[in-house]
Automatic annotation (TrEMBL):
Keywords, in A-Z order: Initiation factor, Nucleus, Protein biosynthesis, Transcription, Transcription regulation
GO CC annotation: transcription factor TFIIA complex
Described function: TFIIA is a component of the transcription machinery of RNA polymerase II and plays an important role in transcriptional activation.
SUPFAM superfamilies associated with the record: Transcription factor IIA (TFIIA), alpha-helical domain, Transcription factor IIA (TFIIA), beta-barrel domain
Occurrences of domain Transcription initiation factor IIA gamma subunit C-terminal (ranges): 62-104
Organism superkingdom: Eukaryota
InterPro entries found in the cross-reference section: TFIIA_a-hlx (IPR009083), TFIIA_b-brl (IPR009088), TFIIA_gsu (IPR003194), TFIIA_gsu_C (IPR015871), TFIIA_gsu_N (IPR015872)
GO MF, any single term: translation initiation factor activity
GO biological-process terms attached to the record: transcription initiation at RNA polymerase II promoter
Protein name: Transcription initiation factor IIA subunit 2
Domain spans labelled Transcription initiation factor IIA gamma subunit N-terminal: 3-48
Similarity annotation: Belongs to the TFIIA subunit 2 family.
């Protein structure tokens, strides 16, 4: 199952901007653009589900907000550090970070 919120990531935004520019200059058709974006969503989901075998530890200054709706958690954190299981810093974000977490078992049944 594909989730379109990956299009909101930096790489997703960059892809959409590049495809829109190519469509504007008639280098690709609108249907090809939609197909590429759909494939991007599928590949991101598949990669995260099947090829990422490590977990990250999140450490934030503040949990800005949270909600649970339609079997998905949305967390808005402020000033977040992403750490490996051994405590090594992977990335640090000053500002807000939005995390969306879905129950994979429920999405597979649909």
């Amino acid at each position: 199952m594909s989730h379109t919120f990956y299009q909101g990531t930096r790489i997703g935004q960059a892809l959409k901007e590049a495809l829109e520019e190519m469509e504007e200059y008639e280098q690709i058709s609108p249907s090809a653009k939609r197909m590429i974006i759909r494939k991007f969503d599928d590949v991101i989901c598949d990669t995260l589900e099947n090829k990422v075998d490590q977990s990250l530890i999140l450490r934030a200054d503040r949990l800005w907000s949270f909600r649970f709706c339609d079997s998905a958690w949305q967390l808005l954190l402020k000033n977040v550090e992403f750490l490996t299981n051994s405590g090594n810093l992977v990335a640090s974000v000053n500002g807000k970070v939005k995390i969306v977490a879905c129950d994979a078992r429920k999405s597979d049944r649909r």
